[in-house]
Amino acid sequence: MTITQLEYVLAVDKHRHFRKASEECHVSQPTLSMQIQKLEDSLGFVIFDRSKNPIVPTIEGEIFITQARVVTREFKKLKDIASDPIVGIEGEFKLGVIPTLAPYLVPLFLSRFMKEFPKVDLIIEERTTEEIIDKLDRDELDAGLLVTPLHNNQIIERVLFYEPLYGFISKDHELYHKTQLDFSDLDKDGLWLLQEGHCLRGQVLNLCKKVKGFQHFESGSLETIKNLVAKDSGYTIIPHLDVQDITGARKKMVRPFKQPVPTREVSIAYSRIFYKEKVIDAIEETILKLIPKELKSYKNTDVEIVPID
């Protein structure tokens, strides 16, 4: 049994396809298939059921694949220590970011981070919370910037900041004439929500549980929703970093909430079996240097953290 064989197995499990797995591993399909077959012969059981399309792991294969992820992670940790035992801030690092953070937070820190840590090959993927958690588990992402708490014992969460939520209201809507919003205002018709899979949707729905009922519309993009509200009607809920980018006439459409202010907890999260914590430290340090000063002043005792599910 070799690390290379384990990497081939994990690639097949990821793609559920031998050809796609061989392309990712930069080997021919016959070579990859032969190595997995050789591994199965030595183990005494079949890892993948090749009669299915797409192929799927067998019961024994599922157990083996879970442990193979642990072994390959630990092997990578040894390689990382051996290659750079002192600095450790270099190499490829895959970071997942949720869609309601990516447009606002990534431009805030990316250029500074790349300038200060040029040896890090930072790859950013925009993913939903569920996708990030799944990819962290599969070791396909090194860390994620997302909204917490996740209530997942396999993931470590480092809270970066607390981000208040605001109303974004059409000039034609009755809430436009209010200077501050209350939870009870969310019973008004015309609320726009993000589609399933976005954590901000779950938070808004949790806010709406405080009222008896509401009618709403849905869209897949927060930017699309804001354009619909601005040019048509209705209202929606947006985070603080988004408000920072709003200028001109649209600034007048933003409304804060009364205390306790509904807020989301933003964290960097990663697997408990991890070997690139120095890169995590560097990302965290860079973000905390560059976020707006007002976000640094919020504590979890000052606000109401809205759950995401």
TrEMBL record:
PROSITE patterns: HTH_LYSR. The keyword Transcription applies. It comes from the Bacteria. Keywords: Activator, DNA-binding, Transcription, Transcription regulation. The keyword DNA repair does not apply. Residues 1-58 form the HTH lysR-type domain. Belongs to the LysR transcriptional regulatory family. This is LysR family transcriptional regulator. It comes from Halobacteriovorax vibrionivorans.
